[in-house]
Amino acid sequence: MLKGIAKIFTKENKDLRARLYFTLFALGIFCLGTSITITWAIPWINTMYQELGFLEIFNLMSGGGLKSFSIFALGVSPYITASIITQLLQMDIIPYFKELKDQGYVGRQKINRITRYIGIILAFVQSYAITVFYLGVSDAGTILKISLVMTAGTAFLLWLGDQITNKGIGNGQSLLIMAGILLSLPSIFTGAYTTFIDGSFALPLGISLFVLFILVYILVIVGIIWITLAERRIPIQYSNRTASAYGAKESYLPIKINSSGVIPVIFASMFLTIPSVVASLIKSEAAIEFINKYILYTTPTGFILYVLLIFFFGYFYTFMVMNPEDMSKDLNARGAYIPGVRPGMETSKYISKTIGRLTAVGSLFLCVLAGMPVLMSSLAKLPSSVSIGGTGILIVVGVAIETYKQIESGLVSRSYQKRRAIKK
């Protein structure tokens, strides 16, 4: 991997190196923006520090900008929400979106444009709700100004992400999310150092615990890499091809263990936070007390509910984006089949059964990853800033792997073009 990255700095890959510099420059602008607090929000910020609930994950993606109400407070989270909405609408809910999906490249371009419009609208709605309910601002003019600045920040990041995608390396929106999460990592390790070494532990024990913390963190990252790359390859054959004609190269239908990413965790967090938001709006002390005792995921019952919701949404989202019937029809249309399985309904059932088993493993992995910070904080009495695991690392590892694959693909393509030019 390091050798592949080192090849970027050779003379032959000057254009790729320019793309890398542009990407780093754009990410630098994002990091700078997360430290600029909206002026009109400053008087209320000191009284706002409360639990953000499901917004914590969006705060993580924005590099802590949400809690400090920076100009990039929302990051690209409204675009993520809009993408999920448009994916749901393509499931025959609205025929127009289904038609766009079937139109190929042109349809995808229209869906992307609609997604951006919905994302900007959601950015304004979210910024308005956060300003009113979490920041506690009551002045209409101040609410409007803060909401417009936060919406403009999201719109700028969507544009910046497109520039990274077109002129830089990797997917721009994903890299912005990864940069926001990486901004929070120093606080985790400084918090661990303060807790173990400068805290109440004896110096030898504190050093040992700090080293153990780092080792466990590394093991978690290794495990995430393994799960991210792990996939089940279902062998397929084509009725109009012979193995000898293609060098006996086998074809596969790859299915990842964790096909849903971090979406189930986001959905589960949102559902657990909705009751507390409703209770705050109706100002019912009994409802708030009940939620604090049984619904919050820091309580035993809330944690169990949190895990069950992750499992449910893991299956729901996976089968939403990977429909076995559509996959079976696609194989049949391409003249492909799974050896030993009849085309049609049996193929659909076979794929569904395989996806179900893999999703069980992937959802269990997500439960462990999302539950580790909660368990570590409650059992080891660590501060909330010190956590092992979490969905943030899963996002960082996934984006890093995809970006490296794109870099590697670019290097291979340039090497191939160079060899062809020499032969000519």
Structure write-up:
70% of the residues lie in helices and 4% in strands. The protein has 16 helices and three strands. The longest helix has 35 residues. The two termini are 31 Å apart. About 1% of the residues have low confidence.
Which terms summarize this structure?
424 residues; mainly alpha; 3 strands
List the helices and strands and how they pair.
Blueprint: H1 2-6, H2 14-34, H3 42-45, H4 55-61, H5 77-89, H6 95-102, H7 105-133, H8 140-167, H9 172-196, H10 203-229, E1 231-238, E2 251-256, H11 263-282, H12 285-294, H13 300-321, H14 324-333, E3 336-337, H15 345-379, H16 391-423
Antiparallel strand pairs: 1-2, 1-3
What is the compact description of this entry?
The protein has 424 residues and is mainly α. It has helices spanning 2-6, 14-34, 42-45, 55-61, 77-89, 95-102, 105-133, 140-167, 172-196, 203-229, 263-282, 285-294, 300-321, 324-333, 345-379, 391-423; strands at 231-238, 251-256, 336-337. The longest helix is centred in the last third of the chain and has 35 residues, at 345-379.
Number of E-state strands: 3
**Poorly predicted regions:** 244-248
| Cα radius of gyration in angstroms | 24 Å
Q: Separation of termini?
A: 31 Å
Name the helicity range.
over 70%
Give the percentage of residues in beta strands: under 5%
Order of helices and strands: HHHHHHHHHHEEHHHHEHH
Largest sheet: 3 strands, antiparallel
Spatial order of the strands forming the largest sheet: 2-1-3
